[in-house]
């Protein structure tokens, strides 16, 4: 009897330990991720860039929490977040990944566009249809469309931009039937359904959408981002592509990390998790870190009075880890390029300064 009691106690101990260390919680840990070298990711004209120095993109790591790992959230730069905070209204992890991949692809396209604009090189922007980011539960197409599909046409009509697509559909009546053609993983499919009333009061298919575009360029540009998702690498991708287009080592021999979305006009946008990205960049040995120099809306500050700009968040993180890495504020890609040009001029001046000093000393001795 005593032996059985001992076995029960042992099993209970193992069960408790298992639950403590391995039981997945509906919570996630956001932690510093990694800094990845862009020399290994970006191909221009089928060639990678091999020179001194590096540009780096930075990431935030996401881990599903257990009771044990949840305790680590008491340490700096480790935040415990709920599924709602992480995924928003998306309750499907597969859909979340699809959307993150879309944001990365869109960011890459915009980065290429901006780099070609800066390099004064031609490109062609192609409109591929409407990318589905959300399907409403009450949509007639809820069983047909999936997040990640691209709607190519409605009633046999294709469009040059999503505005024209929306205008065509919204001019119809609620309950009117439409036929759509959409693409999924390279396969063209069709579906029919009735239009539903949207919150705006007009008829609609019942999807959240954005433009699905691509670029044709000469030389060809390929970015191999792997499983990294989201739009925050836009700025750094633009800088790397521009450097290769110009056949110039614009970062010199320096290690430069950064983050920020990029818009077609070259403006750099706010991103999340910048403090953790500063930590990741510092761990990689980066010397400089580009941070979006965003401006906070006064109405937003009324709701979130403790909200900081990305630049201030990055400065605070750098101070907290006592890094020698310098935080550089940028509003546009031009700000980043101007900084790099000035940095390289300073580096060149420092490199030749000892020689100049020798010449001056010799002239003084000759006098």
UniProtKB/TrEMBL annotation:
The keyword Protease does not apply. Coiled coil: none annotated. Residues 229-297 form the Lon proteolytic domain. The keyword Signal does not apply. SUPFAM superfamilies: PDZ domain-like, Ribosomal protein S5 domain 2-like. Residues 121-192 form the PDZ domain. PANTHER family: ATP DEPENDENT LON PROTEASE FAMILY MEMBER (PTHR10046). This is PDZ domain-containing protein.
